[in-house]
Amino acid sequence: MRFERRRTRAGLAAAAALPLVAGALALGAQSATADQPGGRQLLSGTKPAWATASADKGATADASKLTLRVYLAGRDSKGLAAYAQAVSDPKSALYGHYLTAAQAQARFGATTAQVKAVTAWLKSSGLTVTGANQHYLTVTGDVAAAEKAFSTQLHNFTNGGRTYHAPAATASAPASLNGAVLTVSGLDNAPKKSRHDDTLPPPGAAFVNAGPFSSYYGSNTNKSLPSAFGVQAPYAIKGYTGEQLRAAYGAGSYTGKGVTVAITDAYASPTIAGDAATYASRNGGKAYKNGQLSQVLPGDYNSTEDCDASGWYGEETLDVEAVHAVAPDANIVYVAGASCNDNDLLDALTKIVDHHLASIVSNSWGDIEEHETPDVAAAYDQVFLNGAVQGIGFYFSSGDAGDNVASSGTKQVDTPGNSPWATSVGGTSLAVGKNDTYAFETGWGTEKGLLSADGKSWATPAYTSGAGGGTSSLYAQPFYQRGVVPNALSKANGGKDKMRVEPDIAAVADPNTGFLVGQTQTFLDGSVKYGEYRIGGTSLAAPVIAGVQALTQQARFGIPIGFANPLIYSQYGTSAYHDVTDYPFGPQTVSEVRVDFANGENASDGTITSLRVLGRDASLSATRGYDDVTGVGTPTRNYVDGFRRH
Predict the structure, then answer these.
(1) CA–CA distance from 50 to each of 83, 169, 190, 338 (Å)?
(2) Which regions of the chain are under pLDDT 50?
(3) The model's pTM
């Protein structure tokens, strides 16, 4: 039974004094305005937007079975948000005064009395409590029991040509619980197919870059090919190494020593340890020390077919190898979700917070905002808030489909990076020059035009992919974006209120100027072996920024950065950032040539030559100042040292 939203890999392929409170907790929390008749408090956002009167097909059968999660608000949700802001804001007297996990639970977590009261209410309604922890209760039961508990009726609604059940009115909890319930998820079932006791599949199909390549940007051009925009476009690089990325983003002598970075994805590559070690030895990287790379795995996996489990192996590989390349002495702990569904990914994030496994968390996955339900958004925000008060920061890829119009038909941002309590990482096309010098960046947005049959011209380029960004429809503008994000972006949705805009910061993401990774793959002849290929996406940008943050934490003598956005925005407009634009050379358009094997692996079926135009990200643009492709910009050599003082 579906009670979570499926996530995809992102890169393969309030009050004036407390401005974040409204954006974080009003979604899915109890109504702060009035009780319903009969002493009830609304659990806002539990009725999905698609559950409309025109789509209503009548009541759901009472005997249908549900599995729900009832999230606990804790003893002081407003105090939690206020403290999270205070310890994260460099202007606050409480900046950096983090709590331990035990202190946070004692101060803000659910009490034993609250858990008992919520349990008793659920049982009295006919629901069965099958699991409980300090964050939520898992319950099962039929529709009739759920309707009784949450004082709403479940109806069947058409949505996208299919029929799902959902609350016909906003769910509620008894006012006598005094706000102990944050929200409930699982009252709608759109869409998910869950399987139990699944095993992980073998590595996915191999991909090999064809070449010719440039060893650094612009090092290799073919003058027999047609020019592009009046200049000769160079061949794409083979794939940047850690040495090149460290030089581009100002690592200096810092290596991340003494810092731990956590990575979350779904599932776990069975060959990650060997692949990571082989890649480092082949590409000049530092060898892993014993215990430097560890994994925290669930007891079992589910939904492996629905989530394309083997496709996530490459995601973990990219994330691990990118963090190690940028911060070679940082410890890496990989925390796997049991599937790509929200509940399992929330559990992975919660493990990191509850056990303080790391202070920097890289997450290369997400979904479009229209699929975000406010109940689940509230659950994510609560994890981020609990992390913030403990000095833990979460970094999310901003997405790989630009404004999402081409992929979804609607201009929108990605989630969970839309949360004001997460750092959204956008993407660039990066040019590293000779001797590892930083040459330039554009916003990542790619148009592709094939070489004509006679080899004399390029087809008109068409959009393929680009860094996600834009204006949220769910979250109000957080305090740290005030005075930085222009009104043209914060009010882009047409309303009177300023809204949250993504991303916050950026790094290399374009797969045509991407990172070289090494992974065990399945080749066309059936062999399963190690191979290397160039890859990108904001799935690369997120771990690169996480690695840079590890360097920064080391420079701060090990003091955690925590929730980074207030600090990131406090340095806006300084030499800490490259102010990335789509046209680094004035009106000149930048492009490069890429050659691919037609079958993705070898030349037996020929090759395909194409022109890749840079800095063309759907309706999004990288401009001077803050923009919705690269945020405040990308780190310079002054970033790490500059943040050392804060």
Answers:
(1) 35, 12, 10, 28
(2) 1-4, 12-35, 192-198
(3) 0.94
